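Q: I have 298 residues here and want to know how they pack in 3D. Can you give me a structure?
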Amino acid sequence: MASKKKRVAEPMVTETVESDSDESSDDGFDDNEMDNENSTPINQEVQVEFEARMLDDSDFHGVKTLLQQVFLKANINLSELTNTLISQNFVGCVIKQMDIPDDDDDDGMEDDDSDAVFGVMSVVNITEKKDLECVQQVRSLLLDHCKACAKEKMSRFSDMIHDSDKHMGLLLSERYLNIPPHISVPMYDSLIKDMEKCQRKQMKYSFARYVMISKTFRMKSASKQKEEPINFSNSEEELLHEVSELSFTYSVEDDRDTVVGGQWDSDNPMEALRTVMVIPADQLSVALTRIKAELAST
């Protein structure tokens, strides 16, 4: 197979990442996602540079693992969903560490971790691809949770999903917790440009709305009368939530034992959630502008 082409020539972001085994998971729980076998805190800072690349077959395991963070125990054919993303690799990207020549590497062998997938962003047309098993499962998952958790919104949400004239895109933005939110800006910029190119070629990437399943969490409340505020694992998604036209939240508390690469603490005070957001297409760029402004001030 030919070597992968980079979607950008320069690093997307340079950040200081603090490695600590006590770091919280994407859902606010203890989760060592990087398979660290030593429970002793490392407490060191490492400069890491990331870049965006096109998805290819070698990314299958890494992308599927990231998708598992979103869907957990849900009955979704993640293999098919992952292959769908790879098959449309002209849209979206994966985030990997930049290749840095190692002068001490005398045997010429590549580090097994050098090709690890740290993040993925893409979109799937769940209107056009409604006959795919994985898309059928995602649509059913969303409708079932809406009916159970936000019955008053069910009719409107069902109309949106089943509208064959106004296509809906499943927006997927997933990364490991220690990857800073700043990296989301060039990823969204790249995705929007990719979709614009596809639209000029009359490909079906012109959406009326996007639907996103966002990882969220909140403090467990002892009182049923009090509902704690929701926090977003990917902080920039709070601004996407603000421009959404419909949203609802459901608990994945019973699914948390399947967390990637770690174990859940049953005494953790946080409740793992998923927040579904329907975002009008013309509001995605509006939200991105706000995200850029927020991150520029931090």
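Q: Anything worth noting?
A: Strands lie at 13-19, 44-53, 93-97, 119-125, 168-175, 209-219, 231-232, 246-251, 270-280. The domain at 13-33+46-99+110-296 is CATH 3.40.630 (Aminopeptidase).
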